[in-house]
Design goal:
This protein is an alpha+beta fold and about 90 residues long. It has two helices and four strands, in the order ββββαα. About 25% of the residues lie in helices and about 20% in strands. The chain has a two-stranded parallel sheet. Strands 2-3 form a two-stranded antiparallel sheet. Strand 2 and strand 3 form a beta hairpin. The radius of gyration is 13 Å and the shape is globular. Bound molecules: zinc ion. Zinc ion binds next to loops.
Amino acid sequence: MTDTHGGGAANIVICLRTDKPTPFIDNERGLCSRCQCEVWYRPHVPRPHQLICLECFPALHAKIGGDIELLVTRQTVAELAVYLRRN
Ligand SMILES: [Zn+2]
């Protein structure tokens, strides 16, 4: 995974499957690139990206190997902060 401008670029986006609830009504739906299940993703995720569901990510990581650098966009952090203040 890469991050070239403070959460503005990444090539793998880890997503929840759509059978899990989401607090965001504007989430978009996509397909996991590994198992093709339907996943949620935020409309502002960096592009281009590869969506991968949380359940498939460990196997993908085992295949890729190396250290994992996880990141979250500033916009997602701001949205989560608003959500957490309300709940
Ligand atoms: Zn999957």
